[in-house]
Amino acid sequence: MKHAASVPVPRRRWPARHIRRRIILVAGVLVLSTVPLIGSLGYFSALLLAPILSLFAVGIAVDAWSHTTPTCSSQCGWIQLRQALGHGSKELLWLVGVPPTLLLVGQLWTPNCDPWGGVLWFVVGPGLSVVMGWTSGLWGAVLGRRRISRILIGIVPFSFCFALSLGRLYVHPVVFAYDPFWGHFAGSLYDESVTVSATYGWFRAYNLLGATAAILFLISFQRARQPASSASTWRQSALALGLVAAIVTGWIGARGDDFGFTTTLDSTRDRLSLTRKTEHFVIYYAPRSATAKEIDAVAAEHEFAWSRLARILGREPSDKIHSFVFPSSGEKRRIFGAGKVEISLPWKRQIYLHHQSFPHGALHHELAHAFGATFGDPVFGLSPAVGLIEGLANALAPRASSGLDLHDQAAILDRLEKRPSLSSIIGLGFWAKASSRAYTTAGSFCAWLMETYGVPPMMELYRNGGDFRGTYKRSLRSLEDDWLLFLRVRAIAEEDIARMTQRFKRRSIFQRVCAHRATQLRRQAKLAADRGHLKESVRALETLCRIEPDRYQHRVALARQFAEAGEYDQAREVLAVASEMETLSESAWASLTELRGDLALRSSAYDDAASHYDEALARHIGERRARTLQLKRLVADDPEIAEQITRYFSPFDPDASSRSGTVARMYAAMDLSTSSSHAAVGSYLAGYQLLAAAHPGAAISLLEAAIAEVHLGQAPLPDPALHRKARLLLVQALLRDGQAERASNVLEQLAALRSVRGPEGELPMFHKSGHRLVYDQWRQRIEFFATYPEAPGRR
Predict the structure, then answer these.
(1) Cα(210)–Cα(245) distance, integer angstroms
(2) What string of H, E and C letters represents the secondary structure of 430-462?
(3) pLDDT tops 80 at residue 281
(4) What percent of the chain has pLDDT over 70?
(5) Which of 19, 188, 273, 308 has its CA 20 to 30 A from that of 77?
(6) Distance CA 351, CA 358 (A)
(7) Using an 8 Å Cβ cutoff, are 328 and 354 in contact?
(8) How would DSSP label each residue in 533-564?
(9) Residue 49 is inside which H or E element, if any?
(10) 552-564 vs 534-547: helix axis angle to the nearest 10?
(11) 177 forms bridges with which residues in the sheet?
């Protein structure tokens, strides 16, 4: 019996390479388009797509070159290049055309507030990265023998530049990076001020010059491989032009810090040319800056922060910490890469701050990161768990808010049902949450762990990246349940919950699809206003209100712009629209009402102004705003001081923050301090201004007069919050003047106060958890300054 001949079964083949690339590209971009902010044309999508598309371009170049004719005329290099471009043009068009098209269509389900700006981000970012990948792929195709070797050679420049960028971030004092294949990494994810800057444009021009040199060398190289009989001037011309382009590219690359492409330690020291060396720090600061005026206090605060953390943790870094204090957030952004956000780089033993009034609000937090390097991973000195990195620093350097400590803030967050679960923020999910919620939650939990189980287990947890069962013999869920029980038995007043609602309403930058565009519009509005172009400024702010209609702050900014131009009626109309917004918090209502009062104050309608201020005071607001409102409403009690109050607060004065504005405020305060009825208020304001100007000795007598029990018939400070602030300012002034013992006495008197004298009798003085936290921090500071030989007033 004959067996039937077997019929071969055709093998199932994968689609051709170009089809696979297209499928992967379309599927990937469609998935990306569903993610808010990241999935719309702009900075984040450009950052993600640039390296991917550049690697795709390497493969396209290798495949295209394989279809070129290997032997040709004396113009061989040029011809092969044209052939490769012809074979690869369709795939390149897919790379640079499909992603932006899909992301533009994606606006149907993921809003994009600035599509044309997003197109610019794509062109300058992924678009030019494709050019760099294509150029690398051509060289890989020429030098390699088989496809895999050609691909590997083609990605060598990508790998080299990526390693170089990472090396700069690791070694240099910088958090931003410019890379030929990745484009622009702006630094801190929380920093919303990201634009296609001129520096980025020049960097891309520099990249194109380098790519041109590589192409010219490729042409010359291909021509050199042909027989000598076909020699021509093509090779010499290409080689000469390539050498010129390469030399210029190399010169620019070697001077990258001069062009703003990176920052080195030397270039940073050139800008922060003064140094103060202490036992544990080298502090860099700028001449004639506010930091230079009070460097003794700044240096002492650094050492105090060190001693406090060393006492809590029982260990300290072995090397000195280098602290860079920039004159402003703008200067820090320009040089370092992060503006409003302070940053610590533990592996370098460096912290980066911008000047703040004494005591610096972020110093202890950033230094805590540096201390964490003593038990963090050996490469970066950090924990593998992001939530523990920030949670521990927040726990070691807790900050009060509206009179509440860290645990009370977390308890309110829980009662508002806005607390993120611990499992969602221990890892990289931390960055996806609103910073106010993530930092508060992680900080309170880490503080509770240390208070309950001690500091050593917390350090072990930090080191192992969140192995809760191995460290505490309990699961994260079990520990979270106990922590929540601790929070939920804390007594929290309803007014405190209302007071904190606005703070915790703020969303993560990734939930604000227009975050970058909003910052850009605010900048445009300010620039136009500074130039006197009211219509342009108003147009930018109206656009801002349209793209983020749920943020009342934008309408407040628009109303202020109209008021600065003297258009008070239009300002009131804007506020009327804002007051109709849904879900306005107590704090938001107070802001709108205070602004109406300011409009009345500028119009000399003092009774109306006081009425609005009273309405704002009836809301649940923070102490800082309450202090300001109490002072503003004095115009109703005594219209004779209206001129001084108006001059001091200078509502809607665009020059209020200038030197002339400071002088005007000081003049108004001193004028009030000599008035027959409100000397206490004037003394308080004058002392406040002198202390802010780094003249603590001159501020002492004024602040003492502000809180004196007997005012010879004059009215005392009108509110307990003002009494508390005046006494804390006096503590600060005495300490900075070298009078630690007197500072301690004033602080203890404040902590013991149960009532203060107001204009109409005794007023109760309450000390909440946050107040007690602040008092305790000042006690520790005073104790340290009293024995520190280089403290202010002791040098």
Answers:
(1) 7
(2) HHHCCHHHHHHHHHHHHHHHHHHHCHHHHHHHH
(3) yes
(4) 92
(5) 19
(6) 17
(7) yes
(8) -HHHHHHHHHHHHHHSTT-HHHHHHHHHHHHH
(9) helix 43-65
(10) 170
(11) 185
